[in-house]
Amino acid sequence: MNATHDLIRRYYAAFNAGDWPSFFALLTDNVAHDINQGGRESGLAAFRAFIDRMNASYREQIVDIVISVSPDGTRAAAEYVVLGTYLKTDEGLPEARGQTYRLPGGAFFAVRDGKVARVTNYYNLQDWLRQVGA
């Protein structure tokens, strides 16, 4: 297993454990975060605020993770399944009533100096909406 593969494995392990100090330690200070069907946020403070918003409304585990790494280790991709519970209504989305969902997704990563410099997440929003009863 190479260093980039291990980095992405540790990223998801920390996410799943809710180990936010370890999770954020894997990111560069100016990390770029491309939000599914949204804009780009930059920096650790913005990523922390995003995770705080997500944790207030969702409980998620990332499973069935398959990681691919470029030969030079500067980019990676992960395909996965999100197992989630919609806990609290997120602004602009349907009412939360504890609905559960199983959602395929993927992410692309840029790696610099052994840390995640960019993460771009993708999933099917229409599928999620259908699963939570929108």
Describe the structure.
By secondary structure, the protein is of the alpha+beta class. The chain has a single domain (3-131), classed as Nuclear Transport Factor 2, Chain: A (Roll). The chain is built from four helices and six strands. A six-stranded mixed beta sheet has the order 2-1-6-5-4-3. β1 (27-34) and β2 (40-42) form a beta hairpin. The radius of gyration is 15 Å and the shape is globular. The model has no long low-confidence stretch (mean pLDDT 95).
SSE topology:
Elements lengths: L2 H15 L2 H6 L1 E8 L5 E3 L1 H14 E12 L5 E12 L13 E13 L2 E9 L1 H7 L3
Largest sheet: 6 strands, mixed
Low-confidence stretches: none
- Our count of helices gives 4
Strand order of the largest sheet: 2-1-6-5-4-3
Shape: globular
Share of residues in strands: 35-45%
Which architecture does the CATH hierarchy give at level 2? Roll
Q: Cα distance, first to last residue? A: 42 Å
Q: Features of this protein?
A:
Nuclear Transport Factor 2, Chain: A, alpha+beta, 6 strands, 134 residues
Short description:
With 134 residues, this protein is an alpha+beta fold. The chain is built from 4 helices and 6 strands; from the N terminus they run ααββαββββα.
